[in-house]
Automatic annotation (TrEMBL):
This protein's record includes keyword rRNA processing: no
Predominant localisation class: cytoplasm
Entry-linked InterPro entries: Alpha-catenin/vinculin-like_sf, Alpha_catenin, CTNNAL1, Vinculin/catenin
GO molecular function: actin filament binding; cadherin binding
Protein name: Alpha-catulin
Species: Xyrichtys novacula
GO biological process terms on file: cell adhesion; Rho protein signal transduction
Chain intervals for the UniProt region annotation (Disordered): 702-740
Compositional bias annotation for Basic and acidic residues: 713-729
Length: 753
């Protein structure tokens, strides 16, 4: 019973839990109901235990009552869900009342000689009521979750309408006005989709959402400059092609977000995850190892066919013009070795079947080990080739020579030179696209495969867009807008190269057995960031003297981020929100440390300030998680956590304000850099002080969920969670799950001894 809601994620109602918020909301309820059912197995109970059971039953009933009130308020605001939500609320209330009645011990019963009371309880009734309660509460939560999906769809529709208006504008004045509206709508869409991305349980959907949001982030600035260029040069064909490509890509990304949240099946979904060699090897090894248990689990022909399919996929490596002769020969040799070992396995296998062996023979066991080893060697060689090529390309393209040449040729109005460097860039694009495809084969996880596909598509699309932007500048070399537009597309290319370096590190982490599940930190446009009538702030690189003066601060950041990682590793629940968000903060702080040394992905002060802004947003997300976590704590514990959390909020806001404040001049820029790093250091210090405290409290309350406690403790916990009326008044915000979570948090009062 305890595992059904969160383990199988399916209930009697046939509903599936797809988000962490719904799952986490149900955990305390599952825990307490399980405890009640387990106690029903024991007919003899002490008076103290009976009183505690009575309290649990009454508390469940009261908490469900509050929860149902929120569900009914949501139903009143959303007529399309009124009937379903009303029925689910009715069933939840009825089940809560039934549990209260079943745990009501009534008047004092005669004591036995051992001081215990014999209670002939209705365990079947309790199980039935518990099933009904869990099923109905889950249905209420999933229905409320539909409201969140509806909000995302509504927000997307508003963005699409404004996007259509933007595409048709004919004057700068009209464009500036509509783009301002578009920016506000994108901010709303960004927040909704960001929350949804973090809430998804399915890592593949998370990765697809991250990819779509990354496209929207980069395309927003491209849309601004491409549209301005088209308005300034309305008869320029290359400017129109450039603009049309941006609008098309934004619409595709918006559609992909909706496909993810509504689980719609698109015609192109099968292209999202091409068959990778990593998955082929994993499936082949699984089939081979199954023979240890069952010699008839598959036929020899199907195993040989499986291997040949796997070998065919290696042609992406061996047929590539960029694969060296030595690498090609090594891959072909390992493929041949895998064939030979498989043939030996098949031979031993057939002999074992003929001898009516019930399990793998000694010859088979040796052949199984050799076959698995040979495909592992093949995987290792392919990983080496793909990662090696990607590393070499990143080094070569780090200097951005074709981009610089294109910008210079365009500014000179030299169409012939633009055509020449276009060929160079196209060749680089093809190399990068092919390398992303090879990385996809060896990525080691489906979310990383999705990220590889996204990188491949991004290089494939941005390459031609840079070329059309360069052609426009060459035709209008004195145009400042055309020059700015080309700069924006070149920056998007450079940004994707940085993302590819991160991806490469994650693939290596997975291959070497380290955690490779850290997601890129995405931040969609924020208010004022892409104002249509403001020039982009100038990016600055620190000189040697400035880097030396902030080296000490950077070292402190490195030590703090390392300490945070150490504290995080002590948590048993590595998927806990507090853990994941603290890891993100530590990783971003480490990036800032590398900046102080002139290394890493943050190349300019603009990169640093952008990272600081994203870090502050992640810090505020951590504050939200801490606030939710504190609802299960008693007064003194809660006060300690909330005090530190308030410090964290203040530092996040300070960092955010500082990062957004514009400055002029070298001295002011350096002071802003120094201030951002100091604030990040202070922020990380607070996180470091919170982690061990929260870990200790989390372990404490986790261990207490499985047992019932004294009446005094129940009373204290109940008193500490009394102020719910105020929250009830706020339940009409229509946001669904978040409102319900606040009220279901009241169930945590059932988690003390």
């Amino acid at each position: 019973m305890a595992s059904s809601p969160c383990g199988n994620s399916n209930f009697d109602s046939g509903l599936e839990i797809k988000t962490r918020s719904v799952e986490q909301t149900l955990i305390p309820l599952v825990s307490q109901i399980t405890t009640l059912i387990n106690h029903k197995d024991k007919p003899k109970k002490s008076e103290r235990t009976l009183a505690a059971i009575h309290r649990v039953g009454q508390a469940v009933s009261v908490a469900v009552g509050r929860f149902v009130a929120v569900g009914e308020a949501i139903a009143a605001e959303n007529q399309e869900l009124k009937d379903e939500m009303g029925q689910a609320c009715f069933e939840a209330r009825r089940a809560g009342d039934a549990i209260a009645q079943l745990t009501d011990v009534g008047p004092a019963l005669p004591l036995q000689s051992d001081g215990r009371v014999t209670v002939f309880s209705d365990r079947t009734g309790m199980v039935k009521a518990a099933r009904l309660l869990l099923s109905s509460v889950t249905k209420v939560l999933v229905l409320a979750d539909r409201i969140v999906i509806k909000q995302i769809i509504t927000s997307r529709n508003k963005v699409l309408v404004t996007l259509d208006h933007l595409e048709r504008v004919s004057t700068f004045q009209e464009f500036v006005q509509i783009f301002s509206q578009f920016g506000n709508e994108m901010v709303e869409f960004a927040h909704l989709t960001g929350d949804r991305q973090n809430d998804l349980k399915d890592e593949k959907k998370k990765a697809r959402m991250a990819a779509a949001r990354a496209v929207l982030e980069k395309c927003t600035m491209m849309l601004l400059t491409a549209s301005k260029t088209c308005l300034r040069h309305p008869d320029c064909e290359s400017a129109r092609i450039n603009k049309d490509a941006v609008f098309h890509r934004m619409r595709c990304a918006l559609e992909q977000v909706i496909e993810i949240v509504t689980e719609a099946r698109s015609s192109g979904e099968n292209k999202i995850l091409p068959a990778s060699i990593y998955n082929g090897i994993k499936d082949f090894k699984s089939s081979v190892e199954c023979l240890r248990e069952n010699l008839f689990s598959l036929s020899p022909q199907s195993m040989s066919s499986q291997l040949e399919t796997l070998v065919e996929r290696t042609e992406d490596f061996t047929d590539s013009a960029y694969t060296s002769h030595e690498q090609r020969q090594a891959i072909l040799g390992l493929c041949q070795l895998a064939r030979q070992d498989t043939q030996q396995l098949v031979h031993a296998w057939v002999e074992g079947q003929s001898a009516h062996a019930k399990e793998a023979t000694e010859d088979m066991e040796v052949a199984i080990l050799k076959t698995c080893q040979s495909v592992n060697d093949l995987r290792r060689e392919l990983h080496k080739v793909a990662v090696g090529r990607a590393s070499d390309l990143l080094k070569v393209h780090g200097e951005q020579l074709p981009l610089r040449a294109l910008k210079a040729a365009g500014a000179e109005g030299n169409l012939e030179a633009v055509a020449e460097f276009t060929r160079t860039l196209t060749e680089q694009k093809e190399q990068l696209v092919e390398t992303c495809r090879l990385l996809c084969h060896v990525s080691g996880s489906e979310p990383l495969e999705i990220t590889c596909v996204h990188a491949e598509e991004t290089f494939h699309v941005i390459g031609p867009q840079i070329i059309s932007a360069a052609q426009t500048l060459a035709l209008h070399p004195s145009s400042k807008i055309a020059k700015e537009n080309l700069e924006v597309f070149c920056e998007a290319w450079e940004s994707q190269l940085c993302d590819m370096a991160l991806l490469l590190r994650e693939i290596n982490d997975v291959f070497e057995g380290r955690r490779g599940d850290k997601r890129p930190y995405l931040s969609l446009p924020r208010p004022g960031k892409h104002s249509a009538n403001l020039k982009t702030a100038k990016a600055v690189k620190l000189d040697a003297e400035e880097q030396t003066s902030i080296a000490k601060l950077g070292l402190e950041l490195r030590l703090l981020s390392s300490d945070v990682d150490t504290e995080v590793e002590k948590w048993e629940e590595q998927e806990h929100e507090i853990v994941r968000q603290s890891q993100s903060l530590a990783s971003m702080a480490y990036n800032m440390h590398l900046f102080t040394r002139g290394e890493g992905l943050l190349k300019t002060t603009l990169d640093l300030f952008h990272q600081a802004e994203v870090l502050s947003e992640e810090g505020l997300q951590l504050c939200s998680s801490l606030r939710t976590f504190s609802t299960q704590l008693v007064d003194e514990e809660k006060s300690a956590v909330m005090t530190e959390m308030e410090k964290l909020v203040a530092l996040c806001q300070q960092l955010q304000m500082g990062a957004k404040t514009p400055v002029q001049g070298k001295t002011a820029t350096f002071q802003k850099v120094e201030s951002s790093i100091q604030t990040t250091r202070n922020l990380l210090s607070v996180v470091l002080s919170l982690l061990p405290v929260c870990n200790k409290l989390n372990r404490k309350y986790k261990s207490e969920r499985s047992s019932l406690g004294s009446p005094q403790e129940w009373r204290e916990r109940q008193d500490s969670s009394t102020p719910v009326k105020e929250d009830n008044n706020k339940s009409s915000n229509g946001f669904g799950v978040k409102s319900l979570e606040q009220h279901m948090a009241g169930l945590n009062l059932l988690e003390s001894k």
